Amino acid sequence: MTAIAPSLPALRDAFGDAVERVAVSCGDTIVYLRRDRVHDALAWLKQTPGQEFDYLTDVTAVEYRDPERPLEVVWQVRSLGRKVDLRVKVALDTAEPLEVPSVYDLWKGADWLEREVYDMFGVVFTGHPDLRRIIMWETYAEGYPLRKDFPLRGHFSRAEQTRQALAANPEAHYSLDELSIAEAFHELPKDVRERLRRGDRGFLR
Amino acid sequence: MSHRTVEYNLATPGLDAEGRPIDIPLGLGLKDTHEYRVPGQFDESFGAEHMLVNIGPQHPATHGVLRLVIELDGETVIRVIPHIGYLHSGFEKLGEYRQYNQIIPLTDRTDYLSPMANNVGFALGVEKLMGIQVTERCRVLRVIACEMSRIISHLVWLGTTGIDLGAFTPFLWSFQERERIYNLQEAWTGARLTTSVTRVGGMMADVPDGWIAALREFCRTFPATLAEVDTMFTRNAIWIGRTQGVGVLSRDEAINRSLSGPMLRASGVDYDVRKDRPYLDYETYDFDVPVGEHGDIYDRYRVRLEEMAQATRILVQAAERLEKLEGTPLNVDDPRVILPPKSRAMSDMEAMIFHFKQVMEGVKPPVGEAYLGIENPKGELGTYLVSDGTAKPVRWRIRPPSFLNLAALPRMCEGALLSDVIAINASVDIVMGEIDR
């Protein structure tokens, strides 16, 4: 396969042992970084003259079928001017809380991408200003659909899913933020207000 | 597209060019009475409350099941909160339970306005993973597939955006032309929408006899429709008033927000995957990439209109090449991915084994991962595949271009009017099948 991307020696010089491993697959260079340095490294890649990875192509995660293997969070960065790609990864032990720093402060494009990874894998991006579920609804209680321990048909039975859908609280279609804009909170029925205060925004338990 | 030919100063009656109310003497003598109020000065309590307006998910102007919750101060947008997910189908999860060739029908249904381009994007991703280079005839056919998709996708965008801004006629023109491409797709694949035209290492089918002539006929007559649309819109005062300077995104912001495709190029970034990271021999075709400079709806319109003309140019060149390649093989000669001919499978032991293994076990890429981006009509469609050596991917990630383009909507709508939200949303060219996946 082709050679390792030329950014690597400079990245190693700047971050030393934070670069855990480098691999090449199908011509793409993959850098495994330590979790606590990944934000600094991405900021360095974006801002250093000569690197200029100014474009965040994608943020996603990969969980392998082998339960022993860690879950990987993947950032694809690109330099539009130099026409170079780089894939940065952080390996996370699934037995521990899944947390990585958000890169929203570097790229606004990370906003929805990180929300999607949170929604689908349960990875928490610390520092993200508005980390909510994005594709599944806010009160979705079955877990994180793209995790390997999530069955294809979901955790709940079809009957349970139907019951929850029918019992759903219509106000749950609006976030608390949105309800506060409308100043609609005080107009809600008393029991709904109490449930919202308790933080119960979903179905009736 | 360097300079705008026409700039109109459209002032609403009663307002001057800056939007301030003009004090028009009504001649009723009200000025002297206590009832007279200087225009523009209202009771404080009128403006105190913000209003929450919900648009969608069932609303024709949201182009699918998009829901927007909008905070309004009068008619001015304070904040737009998009809600997506109403068309979530779990394609990426389903892909983990399917063999590679079985995923291709799922790609039809992501960006359903350009199914053929999605098929090509996925097949190229798997071929990168396996290190396969497809035949020249296959590459030319895939270019035709991609460029036809670009035209039909942009035509839908043009027609629906016209309707959103009150122009109905171009919608009929564009759908008439779109129908002709659908007929071509139907003749090629048997399906109008769910084409599933590619396979790993080749194509599902070759084009039938007389197809190239029909494609040439389309390429000959289509520019006339583009010229008509150009006459109708490009110098139209209403169109210009609704689109110029609305929904502006600067160059830096467009890059920072990971925009791609016409949205990125309208903001003045000269980036096109076909030029900068060529696949399918795009570097050998003669075409231009239109780039805007203002980053508003009008520039997005100009970019997409020109892209349709350029796609037609590529189609003409590809049709010429396809005629020269008459009789050359369509699929790669690789028993890992392409079935041997049935006659050989029935007479040759080795061919039968390959046939059996492929049908029973499927295509098995080696352990590894690959990311490949192609220039879809909406922007850069990325396919990120991770393989553990089995016949089903560990992870199939679609990098959805209109998902990222839509994420910039709240920023573009800040301070706009409610009616501009419809125009800005239309200019993003979203397709919910891809956003929700």
Q: Can you walk me through this structure?
A:
The complex is a heterodimer of chains A (205) and B (437). The mean pLDDT of chain A is 83. Chain A is built from six helices and seven strands; from the N terminus they run αββαββββαβααα. Chain A is elongated and about 65 Å long. Chain A is α/β, with parallel strands linked by helices and 205 residues long. Helices cover 27% and strands 22% of the residues of chain A. In chain A, 30% of the residues are buried. Chain A has a domain at 7-147: Beta Polymerase, domain 2 (2-Layer Sandwich), CATH 3.30.460. Chain A has a five-stranded mixed sheet. In chain A, strands 6-7 form a two-stranded parallel ribbon. Chain B is mainly alpha-helical and 437 residues long. Helices cover 46% and strands 10% of the residues of chain B. Chain B contains 17 helices and eight strands. Chain B has helices at residues 91-95, 100-108, 115-130, 136-164, 169-189, 211-233, 237-243, 251-256, 262-266, 273-276, 297-324, 342-347, 349-361, 401-407, 409-413, 418-428, 432-436, and strands at residues 51-55, 67-73, 76-83, 198-199, 202-203, 368-375, 380-387, 395-399. In chain B, helix 3 runs antiparallel to helix 4 (136-164), helix 4 (136-164) runs antiparallel to helix 5 and helix 6 packs antiparallel against helix 11. Mean pLDDT of chain B is 86; it is low at 1-11 and 24-36. Chain B has a single domain (91-436), classed as Orthogonal Bundle (Cytochrome-c3 Hydrogenase, chain B), CATH 1.10.645. At the A-B interface, strand 3, helix 3 and helix 5 of A face helix 1, helix 8, strand 6, strand 7 and strand 8 of B.
